[in-house]
Specification:
Number of strands: 10
Shape: globular
CATH superfamily of the largest domain: Glycogen Phosphorylase B
Number of helices: 11
Strand order of the largest sheet: 7-6-5-8-9-10
Distance between the termini: 43 Å
Number of domains: 2
CATH topology of the largest domain: Rossmann fold
Length: 295
């Protein structure tokens, strides 16, 4: 039995399920486990079932045990006993695979393995599923009928203009325990990206999405813009759908807007992305080759 252990919000869940879907092509005994998502208490829980009908696997006791050991292993005072416990678990025949590095494609992870194998990671690279883009887009096809009236009305505007989504993520990135990992893209990045895309297309309509709309309106005020501030909580997915319907995309260092841009099916799309995706860490395989990367 191979088990993909899910964690994080919607963007990360999409990466993890795409990885699972690719492994499923070669692994006959494979399932997903969402126990970690429930324990994290972050974002909106396991969203793939509600949005796409994707079912979670059973809650395995071994997953619960290993997850807890891995958490304690990160704490200096518990490193030695937790490592010993982890080695004891491995002696029972359970294999534990932890993704090495951020956004680094490793085809070896896709190979099937025998016995009990637990996979912990995010698998944030399009290289895992690039050869099956159409199939992945079909898997993650949002139900437009579930849109709110406001979002539905905006779809018409987005489709009839040279719309450019602009995602600005600040909220959780500014939290104390997150600052060393995720640093929000600064105003200079967005000014540069907007200027760049204005030079490439005529009459752009910028559609702003953010968890801090007041900051956006105060710092990036444009006349040719729409500021989306009505999707939150379990309705946040509507922002991702609206991003995917825009003609072009300016993303944040966030898997949420990464997927908004990747799911955009416009063959002529321009996608602008920040050079730094994770603070102080190289992420060599996070972006498709045709995206424009700027500082």
């Amino acid at each position: 039995m191979e088990i993909i252990v899910f964690s994080g919000g919607l963007g990360n869940q999409l990466f993890q399920y795409a990885f699972y879907w690719m492994k499923k092509r070669v692994s006959s005994d494979l399932e997903i486990n969402t126990y970690s998502i429930g324990r994290e208490g972050l974002h909106n829980g396991f969203e793939l079932e509600r949005l796409f009908g994707i079912k979670s696997g059973n809650t395995s006791l071994i997953v619960r045990l290993v997850r807890k050991i891995l958490i304690f292993q990160k704490k200096k005072q518990f490193q030695i006993p937790s490592t010993l416990l982890l080695n004891l678990v491995k002696l029972t025949g359970v294999k534990i695979i932890q993704e090495q590095g951020y956004s680094r494609f490793n085809p070896g992870y896709l190979k099937p393995r025998k016995g009990w194998v637990l996979y912990f990671g995010f698998w944030q690279s399009p290289l895992y599923f690039d050869a099956f883009q159409e199939e992945i887009r079909n898997l993650f096809s949002f139900d437009k009928l579930q849109l709110s009236g406001k979002s539905d009305a905006l779809v018409t505007t987005i489709r009839s203009t040279e719309s450019v989504s602009v995602h600005i993520r600040r909220g959780d990135f500014l939290a104390k325990d997150n600052k060393n990992i995720n640093v929000p893209c600064d105003k200079a990045y967005y000014v540069k990206a907007i200027s760049l895309i204005t030079g490439k297309i005529k009459n752009p309509l910028f559609v702003f999405f953010s968890d801090d709309p007041d900051w956006v309106k105060e710092n990036i005020s444009l006349s040719n813009a729409v500021y989306v501030d009505w999707n939150s909580g379990i309705d946040s997915w509507q922002d991702m759908y609206l991003m995917s319907e825009c003609k072009h995309n300016i993303i944040a260092n966030s898997t949420f807007s990464w997927w908004g841009a990747w799911l955009n099916a416009n063959k002529e799309k321009i996608v602008i992305a920040p050079a730094k995706f994770v603070n102080n860490v190289e992420t060599p395989d996070i972006y498709p080759e045709n995206w424009i990367i700027i500082e």
